[in-house]
Amino acid sequence: MNLIFEGCDKVGKTSLLKEFVKRRKFFYGEDWPVIKFSGPVLTKQILKFWRGVTNNVPIMQAEMMSEYLTTFKIFKSAKLDHIICDRFFLGEFVYCFLRRYRYEDEETNYWIGLFNQLMEETNCVLVYVKADIDVILKRMLADGGDAYTPTEAVEKILAFYEELLPKLNGRVVIIDTTVASVSYACDELEAAVASWE
Fold first, then answer.
1. Which of 60, 123, 127, 155 is deepest in the core (most CB within 10 A)?
2. Please, what is the average pLDDT of the chain?
3. What is residue 38's predicted lDDT score, i.e. its pLDDT?
């Protein structure tokens, strides 16, 4: 089983996944390496699509699948049983939305279909970490602001994630860190993972 941690900046994704990795190593002797996925793969493909450089969806889909699945294959070839992704395809899709007009329904359905396919082929569980907007903004201010996510964009990001979640076909666990400590949130996550192992 592999885990994908998703959610807006400052919801506590990284703190939660670090606690989870630490516990699995201490209590079970398991290694859960963390992959940090970021921008260029999806952004490059979507921009080509938007700008009319390509409208060949099958070729784009093949390129996308190849780039993402190759990373998983490298880790699997090292005989690793588990991988954690600190953001993945869905997060890139949500954050790309900030750079352009609203996605059309057909575009959203296409990319979510691809994400569902990736989830299935890589045996992934999506861990969606969320928090109330006021809590997120306070965390951003406490950290001196977030260079990547403008505070005015947080509401849009949260709303878009919430819109996309019902469209996912795979296994999803939702962790709310608004009031929960990292330890309590990790208890919730471990219970969910145990139910699928």
1. 127
2. 78
3. 55
Structure tokens at 177: 């860190």
Q: Under a CB-based contact definition with an 8 Å cutoff, are residues 6 and 143 in contact?
A: no
Question: How many domains is the chain partitioned into structurally?
Answer: 1
pLDDT confidence of residue 24? 92
Which residue range is the domain that position 28 belongs to? 2-196
Q: How far is residue 35's CA from residue 52's CA, in Å, rounded to a whole number?
A: 31
Assign residue 163 the CATH number of its domain: 3.40.50.300
Q: Is the pTM of the predicted complex or chain greater than 0.90?
A: no
d(CA 73, CA 63): 15
The CA distance from 68 to 66, in Å, is 6
Instruction: Kindly tell me if the per-residue pLDDT of 51 is higher than 70.
Output: no
Are the C-beta atoms of 179 and 185 separated by less than 8 Å? no
